[in-house]
Amino acid sequence: MYNARKEPMVIVNKKIDGSYRVLGLKGTQLSHVNLITNHLDKFKNDFKLMHYEELGQIDLKELLDF
After folding, report:
1. How many whole angstroms separate alpha carbon 18 and alpha carbon 31?
2. How many CA atoms lie within 13 A of 12 on its CB side?
């Protein structure tokens, strides 16, 4: 997942049981993260992260400024 500046912050792997393993990348503010969760969306929202697919999307303010 990526932050608002489109920098990679964590790696997410889906486990066989449906839970997610989240590992913070070295050199980032989330490098300490090493957890397993069933609530990936909550984690994503808590840290204001985006999936790769969301990176190309722009918000209304960016569109109006364009």
Report:
1. 23
2. 19
Q: In what order do the strands lie in the sheet with 10-14?
A: 10-14, 20-24, 34-37
Q: Give the model's confidence band at 57: pLDDT under 50 very low, under 70 low, under 90 confident, else very high.
A: low
Q: Which residues pair with 17 in a beta bridge?
A: none
- Domain count for the chain: 1
- In this structure, is residue 4 part of a structural domain? no
Q: Grade residue 9 by pLDDT with cuts at 50, 70 and 90.
A: very high
Query: Rounded distance, CA 41 to CA 26, Å?
Result: 22
DSSP letter (8 states) at residue 25? P
Interval 27-54: pLDDT, tens = 999 999 999 999 999 999 999 999 887 8
